[in-house]
Design a protein that fits this description.
The protein has helices at about 15-25, 40-50, 75-85, 95-110, 125-130, 140-150, 170-185, 195-210, 225-235, 270-275; strands spanning about 1-5, 30-35, 55, 65-70, 90, 115-120, 135-140, 160-165, 185-190, 215, 240, 260-265. It has about 280 residues and is α/β, with parallel strands linked by helices. The strands form 3 sheets. A 4-stranded parallel β-sheet has the order 1-12-10-11, with helices on both faces. It has a 4-stranded parallel β-sheet with strand order 3-2-4-5, with helices on one face. It has a 4-stranded parallel β-sheet with strand order 7-6-8-9, with helices on both faces.
């Protein structure tokens, strides 16, 4: 059996940076907290918990003497202010690419444009982006945008600024831009999909077209991992989404000669290695 591992599988820059910042804070002896799980991977979160790093769900759970790490997804302006008011030390591990989007929507609103975000409305990254402007619209797909335009009779001269969730797909973004260009006279677009995400998705697509089976490794709660599985299923009939090597059923691969492995941006290298060895 031939096994091929995607070169881009595993931690992206933003996730790696966030994990390192938590490690540094804990190693320095600081009473370290993370506002939400630092990444969507239970193995990493459990390792940090064993090292004394605690996960909190709201800023008010922190206080003077604590060090709170903001995860790579980022937070809204309001949440940041609430965190500042606690007196805790703040380490902002927001991915720089996400931070840029915060600035884009904030500036767009200041210029009189309506920020439009293409992404999953309930995703922490999208919630954070939306929190850097007072009014915006979030659409998961072009159909949702079309429905908004039709039902609310949105005027074509409405100034709009469109951005994307960093982990969205290029296909989805292009469809939304294509529709928006026909609809709005004063349209401003920023392709804010992370290039590392784009590369990972492209490799997953190419690998799934060459292999008889694909293994996508990552936390089931990760939208990044879910999108990789979705892309692989477009080209390959046998796609297995697993959290770690123990979830693999070797009987599923007995008649398979070529297997491809990819992994979400929150998947540690050691888990990918274990899956490969299995």
């Amino acid at each position: 059996m031939s096994v091929r591992v995607a070169k881009s599988a595993g931690f992206c820059f933003g996730v790696s940076r966030a994990v390192e910042l938590v490690q540094q804070a804990a190693a320095a002896g600081k009473r370290t907290l993370t506002l939400g799980p630092i990444i969507h991977n239970r193995h990493v979160v459990e390792q940090f918990a064993a090292a004394g790093v605690r996960v909190i769900d709201s800023p008010e759970e922190a206080g003077p003497g604590d060090t709170v790490v903001i995860r790579s997804h980022g937070v809204s302006r309001e949440v940041y202010k609430r965190l500042e008011s606690t007196g805790a030390e703040i380490i902002d591990a927001t991915c720089p690419f996400v931070k840029r989007i915060h600035g884009l929507v904030s500036q767009a609103e200041a210029e009189g444009r309506l920020p439009v975000i293409i992404g999953t409305p309930t995703h922490p990254e999208v919630e954070g982006i939306a929190g850097w402007c007072t009014d915006c619209r979030v659409f998961e797909n072009v159909e949702a945008m079309e429905k908004w335009v039709q039902e609310e009779n949105v005027p074509p001269d409405l100034p709009v600024c469109m951005v994307s969730q960093t982990t969205s797909t290029e296909f989805l973004w292009k469809k939304c831009v294509q529709f928006a260009k026909k609809q709005f006279t004063y349209l401003q677009t920023f392709d804010t999909i992370c290039r590392a995400t784009e590369c990972r998705q492209r490799e997953a697509s190419e690998l799934s077209q060459r292999c008889e089976a694909m293994v996508v490794v990552g936390d089931l709660k990760s939208s990044n991992t879910g999108r990789l599985a979705m892309i692989c299923r477009e080209h390959c009939d046998k796609v297995f989404l697993v959290d770690n090597a123990s979830e693999l059923n070797l009987d599923d691969f007995r008649s398979v000669s070529d297997v491809g492995i990819t992994a979400g941006a929150s998947t540690p290298a050691w888990i990918i290695k274990e899956v490969n060895k299995t």
